[in-house]
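Is adenosine-5'-diphosphate-glucose placement plausible here? Inputs below.
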Amino acid sequence: MNNESKSNPQASFVVVANRLPVEQVTNDDGSTTWRTSPGGLVTAMEPVMKNQDGAWIGWSGAPGEKLDPFEADDIKQVPVELSQDEINEYYEGFSNATLWPLYHDSVAFPEYHREWWDAYVKVNQRFADAAAEVAEEGATVWVQDYQLQLVPKMLRDVRPDLKIGFFLHIPFPPGELFGQLPWRERILEGLAGADLVGFQTPEGAANFLRLLRTRMNYQVQRDTFTTPDGRRSRARAYPISIDVQMFEDLARSPEVKARAKEIRDDLDAKTVFFGVDRLDYTKGLRQRIRAFGELFKSGELDADEAVFLQVATPSRERVEEYKRLRDDIELLVGRINGDMGRIGRSPITYLHNTFPRSEMAAMYLAADVMVVTPLRDGMNLVAKEYLACRPNNDGALVLSEFAGAALELKQAYMVNPYDINGMKNTTLQAMNDTAANKRRRMRALRRQVVTHDIKKWASDFLGDLDPDMKPDEG
Ligand code: ADQ
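Reply from A.M.:
I modeled the complex. Tokens:
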């Protein structure tokens, strides 16, 4: 009997996230193995994970899948099981149809269902239990994102010896909106269970601290709050970033350059505008496409000279609001191309697909003007990826002032995505600006991104959570 293979691994550093960072790959002989999927968060955590004997707790992505802990690329993976009902209620329901719209300015109507909340509590408890079991005495546990806001307190209740960090990847809303939530106190208490609560922007941290003071009666002084049991914790902004070097290397590689040229040849336009987003109602796609439609219609953009390439990644396709969005976008694009195109030429090229990173880099490299116009966005990594892919300091970034990234990327051509006329004017300005002006802006933007990459983000957060484990920024 081998007891050891059944018991959970022990780790001094634990990441808890809704999803495991792995995908299943089929080998040549037909067998399957797990490989870590190359997301930003894994890149950030990898060095820490490997130095610190780390484990990652999360769901595999398949309904009802029960898996024992396993290793992928030297990282211990601890799967948490979710049944189909839990996926419906905790994930697609409370996380994506209640919290997601509420935290994004209620740009879609948040739904409140008591059964969804019950499932959210139950699943959060399961993640907390898994973390309590895996974490060594005195370990550091970093909980990620809006699906797991109750975990910090649940974990602290049973493991007061741990250092617990939490990072919210999406905006934290102002009190007037957050106050709608029937379970608002439970969420605040849940988050306050952490020693350090990280947000994308100072505004998010301030919203949270203000709510702790006004709704919970906690003592708050600057970025520090005291819980009723006398524990002092902090809430601060840590703007997330990307693996800049990886994108820049891709953009400099002969293969990606050749592919970018091919894309330009295929698009056959003097100016290529580019947007790439998860197909999500927070990303401002309806407004953006309407703005381009009007520009082509009025002749301010000539369909023989300019093209708008919009790539939309399929996302949350079982949630009603997302189905509606897809239909709306396809209707809008079809109408514009039908009205303004001619044989062999469409003003908008629309792709509903997911691409490998090298293809993304080639598209960034092929684009003269990048259009990132979310109605609300925690950060927006697409804007930063575009900048990383422009080592020659050319190109232009049109950016919504409602993306977290706007606070750092001040030299972008800034727009209010609700103001269609303003957005049209600024998009034209970005296209027509002098090369010297564009270069000046691009240089400043790139400087910000190059000096604030994903490793710095992780290192800043973990250094504040536990100065003993400040990882090497590489
Ligand atoms: P998202 O809402 O998913 O992230 P974003 O930050 O833009 O938004 O990240 C999207 C990622 O998906 C990028 O890395 C991009 O390259 C990739 N991607 C998009 N379309 C793709 C396609 N068609 N094929 C392949 N890859 C594609 C949430 C928050 C953000 C926050 C991040 C990180 O909503 O505000 O910046 O988390 O904290």
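Short version: Residues 16 and 143 are 5 Å apart (CA to CA).
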